[in-house]
Design brief:
With about 110 residues, the chain is of the alpha+beta class. The protein contains four helices and four strands; from the N terminus they run βαββαβαα. The protein starts with a strand and ends in a 9-residue tail after the last helix.
Length: about 110
């Protein structure tokens, strides 16, 4: 279950994807399969090769891309990897907003 994002934020994420950019959106998220995660960061791009190459620099495998028919394919980032990538991409404000730390994601 996703919550904590606005239509404006979602529209911006989709617009950036449509423009061929690597786009980030983080939101609160609860899923019984991942009981220690309370948020997810979705990283998408219209150009799937570009997205796969971007992910490879962080050890993400191309087959982990969530392929969507609507064109908003993306990686789902959780836990330590989520924190690592948000920090690396200069999105530390998301780490603070969602109270993410390496220690709390384990």
């Amino acid at each position: 279950m996703a919550f904590g994002i606005t239509k404006k934020q979602l529209s911006k994420w989709k617009q950036e994807i449509d423009e061929g950019k690597i786009a980030f959106i983080t939101h609160f998220w609860l899923d019984p399969r991942f009981p220690k995660s309370t948020s997810v960061t979705k990283v998408g791009c219209k150009d799937l090769k570009k997205l796969a190459n971007w992910g490879a620099q962080f050890g993400l495998q191309e087959e982990w891309i969530h392929h969507r028919k609507d064109g908003y394919s993306h990686f789902d980032l959780l836990g330590d990897k989520q924190v690592e990538i948000l920090h690396s991409e200069g999105l530390a404000d998301e780490i603070l907003k969602f109270k993410l730390t390496q220690k709390t994601c384990r």
